[in-house]
Amino acid sequence: MQSRSMTLQILLKYLLEDVLFDIFRCAGISANKEAPVNFLSDPLEGRSTLRPADILVFGWVGGKHACVDLTGVSPLVGLRSSAFTVGQAALKAAPGKVIKHEKACLDNQHVFIPFAFDTFGFLAPEAVDLLNRVQRVMRSNVMTPRSMDVVFKRLSFAIQKGVAAQLVARLPTISM
To answer: Which of 6, 14, 19, 85 has its CA 20 to 30 Å from the CA of residue 165?
Structure first.
């Protein structure tokens, strides 16, 4: 059951990756999904030691490309006897990703942006900042009444859809 839960969590991440990439495309922002970045490989082993950037946004910060890494967590992860705090799991996940990937990105003239979220829909501050900027770009490039708040609505719906898929997958099968 644990591997099934993990597989569903990964599917949620890929669903959000697809939606976020589509949002970039609709806003007219140049990006690439699952972009191989050669500096994330170990020259001694001759193969990649880290995953490709979930989304590589070209020229995003001061002309530098941004490696966006999506991380989805359950808000109940690590919950013990202490009081529940909204967003605590996502807030703890983001710094771990920064520690793991930021130096390699900076060493190669790239910017690293962790995009941590939880299944309750909480977004870490870096993710909110990224989406706010995408929304501003969308307003200036694609000005329609529908584009005013589409970024957060689409992402929110994708999280809800992914959680619903996880719940449905856990329902017991009934033979008729």
So the answer is: 85
